TrEMBL record:
InterPro entries: Anti_sigma_zinc_sf (IPR041916), DinB/YfiT-like (IPR034660), Znf_put (IPR027383). This is Putative zinc-finger domain-containing protein. The keyword Lipoprotein does not apply. Residues 1-32 are annotated as: Disordered. The lineage of its organism: Bacteria, Bacillati, Actinomycetota, Actinomycetes, Kitasatosporales. Coiled coil: none annotated. Residues 8-31 have a biased composition (Basic and acidic residues). Keywords: Transcription, Transcription regulation. Residues 48-78 form the Putative zinc-finger domain. It comes from the Bacteria.
């Protein structure tokens, strides 16, 4: 197709079908139209900045005329204007977009992996930062009625699986209450206002649920989100000086680095509970974050196993641990996402990470192991592969499930 000029000296051959002329009225009506707006002389930079407003029809008449005048002579801006106009079409809600349900999760994951912040989040706080952001994206997508959808929280009480009924809003209240342990350790405001009174995670949750906040509604989202942002911002500015700060959990304590990892794990687990309740797809954490969550659970297992032994819930230690003999161990082989190999001490809570005398091996998928630790899978159904001392295998699987709680 040959090109030409429009009388003003502009050549439309540069644009072809992508040229965006200003709309014109029929010839018979032009005599009755008001005078066209005066076209202001604006720089290319200013005109480019107006393209988004133009696509949304938010420019003044003069700005609209200037933008449309510019689009007939600037190919890059014409291309960008067409893209923006197409994007604006997606904002209309009168039609089904039929988008991939995992699109938001993939976009969010991509955003979180790009461009480091000016004040970077410490690597040990990154799992918590990521999991709270993913959960917040899920909460943003659900409607008001879904905040009251029933959710059954599950955990292992030492010998059997148990649970508690609540709602989506109740789950967020639970996360707010337990995250308050970290807030208090950092000297921040406690959402329960308990001050120096020590409360376990379960006690804090029951206090929250029985207080004036009941029944929780979608109003719990903002305080929970603000609290998580404050925690991440505080540790980011404090840096290494707070990494070994102790966070009390009632009958035990964790250093801040492990505590935020534990909070990331619980945030993911309960996000999955919410997603199941509202029929929403939800992916496991990134492989590197999942590996660190698994490692934390494995590090806690020897002491948990020793506690179960004292309570008569596990077999007795069979080997005297000395400096030259670390005792028996179980080889845990975690497959798939976040996988790796760990050796769990069976005879001493102090002997961690040493193969010792391996008497058993257990193979588990990474996500399935985390579901066991969360109390969502019965120990007798957890392991995909087992070999060796059956009592040692049973003791470790039950100890893993015993790490769960409300």
């Amino acid at each position: 197709m040959s090109g030409g000029t429009d009388g003003s000296g502009r050549d439309d051959r540069l644009h072809g079908e992508r040229r965006i002329p200003a709309p014109r009225a029929p010839a018979d009506d032009r005599a009755y139209l008001p005078a066209p707006p005066v076209v202001p002389q604006l720089s290319h930079k200013v005109l480019t900045s107006l393209l988004g407003a133009w696509a949304l029809a938010a420019c003044s008449a003069e700005e609209t005329a200037a933008v449309e005048e510019h689009l007939t002579s600037c190919a890059p801006c014409a291309d960008e204007a067409l893209r923006l106009r197409d994007a604006v079409g997606l904002l209309h809600t009168d039609g089904s977009l039929d988008l991939d349900p995992m699109l938001r999760a993939r976009v969010l994951e991509s955003c979180l992996s790009r461009r480091p912040a000016r004040i970077p989040v410490p690597s040990w706080a990154a799992p918590y930062d990521t999991e709270t952001a993913r959960l917040d994206a899920l909460l943003r997508d659900i409607g008001s009625p879904e905040w009251h959808a029933p959710v059954r929280l599950k955990w292992f009480d030492g010998e059997r699986q148990t649970g508690r009924k609540t709602t989506v809003a109740g789950v967020i209240g639970h996360l707010t209450a337990v995250d308050g342990l970290v807030s208090t350790a950092l000297g921040l405001d406690d959402p329960l206002g308990c001050g120096d009174k020590p409360l376990s995670p379960t006690e804090r949750t029951e206090t929250y649920w029985s207080a004036a906040y009941r029944p929780p509604t979608r109003a719990v989202r903002e305080p929970w989100r603000d609290q998580s942002h404050t925690l991440v911002r505080t540790v980011s500015f404090a840096g290494r000086s707070v990494s070994e700060l102790s966070v009390p959990y009632g009958d035990f304590a964790l250093p801040l680095t492990d505590s935020l990892l534990e909070r990331a794990f619980e945030c993911w687990v309960h996000a999955g509970d919410i997603a199941d309740a509202v029929d929403y797809p939800y992916e496991p954490p990134a492989a590197a974050h999942l590996h660190r969550m698994i490692d934390l659970a494995v590090r806690l297992l020897p002491a948990t196993l020793a506690g179960r032994r004292r309570a008569g819930l596990a077999g007795a230690a069979r080997h005297l641990v000395t400096a030259g003999s670390p005792g028996r161990s179980l080889h845990l082989e975690v497959e798939g996402r976040g996988g790796g190999d760990w050796y769990i001490a069976l005879d001493s809570p102090a002997a961690v990470g040493s193969p010792g005398h391996t008497v058993a091996q257990v193979a588990l998928d990474g996500v399935e192991f985390c579901r066991l630790v969360a109390g969502h899978v019965p120990p007798v159904e957890a392991a995909a592969g087992q070999e060796g001392d059956r009592e040692a295998i049973s003791d470790v699987l039950f100890a893993a499930a015993s790490l769960s709680r409300l």
